[in-house]
């Protein structure tokens, strides 16, 4: 260890490493099972390579925790999967699953890296980001080669620079007013959100089929319906501007009802997706300058927050929510 590595972890570094360890262990165990059920060799090779690289990230986090004498989180392991269970998703969806989780890793790793000070911590978080970038590109190219990934719509290239010169540029909420056409940033966000919700609907469909506990099954069904509502609402926005929504529905759940994952693992994955949906909706709202879009995306954020909160309550009820490291309670210590 270098001299710098002996510097004590800050609270933010401890927290970000803790969260990265949780997601990393979930990824390793989830994709190791999915890999074994994947038939297509190219898809299987992608999953195998990803697992090996993520295992390296996990090991580096463990080394830092051991050097700092910090307890190793429980995370996820073989107890959270059933190896003999039949496949829950087809090969195309398995790669879509990995691609979608790489999107989440982008945001988390970028923010976490900006919160790090120790070189070793920064290097791990940067590696996690680079890893997400690498496998996002790899899975995207795979899906494009299979013809199952719909690209965002094309647009006529601009011939001159334009400036906003009308306050109506921000209008759109009033039902009788003319809405301006969507700009390319708004289209990009809406297209991405539809793609994410199509994935979420398929994922919740599979999870609902195999969930054991009734409240968990009900929660996944609710998530599926929420995704369907979002798809319809966002597609309507594009259609109002004569833009075709993304229509590829390739990749789906099988008809299996035998759980390959524990309810705890499926709830954790859903929690990650729900939390990221909140952040993504907020980001989309900040990009839009049309008032009706801001309201609609704001309502979507509210729905996503309510759904994530309900999921957290279920996880707490069943004692599945591992508590992040806490700051010292000074009031309690002085008693």
Shape: globular
**Largest sheet features:** none
Q: Give the CATH superfamily of the largest domain.
A: Ferritin, core subunit, four-helix bundle
- Give the number of helices: 9
Number-wise, the strands total 0
Overall mean pLDDT score?
Answer: 87
* Gap from first CA to last CA: 39 Å
Which structural class matches the secondary elements? Answer: mainly alpha
Stated plainly, the CATH topology of the largest domain is called: Ferritin
Estimate percent helicity: 55-70%
CATH class of the largest domain: Mainly Alpha
Identify low-pLDDT runs: 1-5
Radius of gyration over C-alpha positions, nearest whole angstrom: 22 Å
Order of helices and strands: HHHHHHHHH
* Approximate strand percentage: under 5%
Number of domains: 2
Secondary-structure arrangement, i.e. CATH architecture of the largest domain: Up-down Bundle
């Amino acid at each position: 260890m270098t001299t710098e590595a002996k510097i004590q972890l800050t609270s933010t570094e401890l927290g970000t490493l803790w969260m990265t360890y949780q997601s990393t262990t979930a990824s390793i165990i989830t994709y190791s099972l999915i890999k074994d059920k994947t038939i297509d060799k190219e898809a299987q090779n992608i999953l195998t390579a990803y697992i090996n690289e993520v295992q390296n990230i996990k090991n580096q986090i463990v080394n830092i925790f051991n050097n700092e004498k910090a307890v190793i989180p429980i995370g996820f392991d073989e107890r959270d999967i059933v190896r003999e269970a039949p496949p829950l998703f087809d090969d195309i969806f398995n790669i879509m699953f990995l691609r979608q989780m790489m999107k989440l890793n982008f945001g988390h790793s970028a923010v976490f890296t900006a919160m790090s000070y120790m070189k070793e911590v920064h290097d791990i978080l940067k590696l996690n980001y680079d890893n997400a970038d690498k496998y996002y590109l790899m899975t995207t190219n795979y899906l494009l080669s299979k013809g199952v990934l719909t690209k965002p719509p094309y647009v006529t290239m601009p011939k001159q620079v334009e400036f906003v010169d009308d306050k109506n540029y921000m209008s759109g909420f009033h039902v009788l007013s003319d809405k301006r056409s969507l700009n390319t940033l708004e289209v990009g966000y809406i297209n991405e959100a539809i793609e994410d919700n199509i994935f979420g609907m398929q994922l919740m469909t599979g999870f609902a089929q195999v969930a054991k506990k009734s409240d968990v099954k009900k929660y996944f069904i609710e998530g599926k319906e929420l995704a369907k509502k979002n798809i319809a609402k966002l597609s309507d926005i594009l259609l109002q501007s004569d833009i075709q929504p993304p229509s590829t529905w390739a990749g789906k759940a099988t008809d299996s009802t035998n759980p390959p994952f524990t309810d705890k693992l499926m709830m954790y994955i859903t929690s990650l997706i729900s939390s990221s949906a909140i952040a993504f909706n907020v980001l989309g709202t900040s990009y839009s300058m049309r008032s009706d879009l801001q309201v609609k995306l704001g309502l979507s954020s509210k729905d996503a927050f309510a759904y994530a909160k309900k999921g957290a309550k279920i996880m707490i009820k069943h004692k599945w929510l591992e508590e992040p490291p806490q700051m010292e309670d000074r009031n309690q210590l002085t008693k």
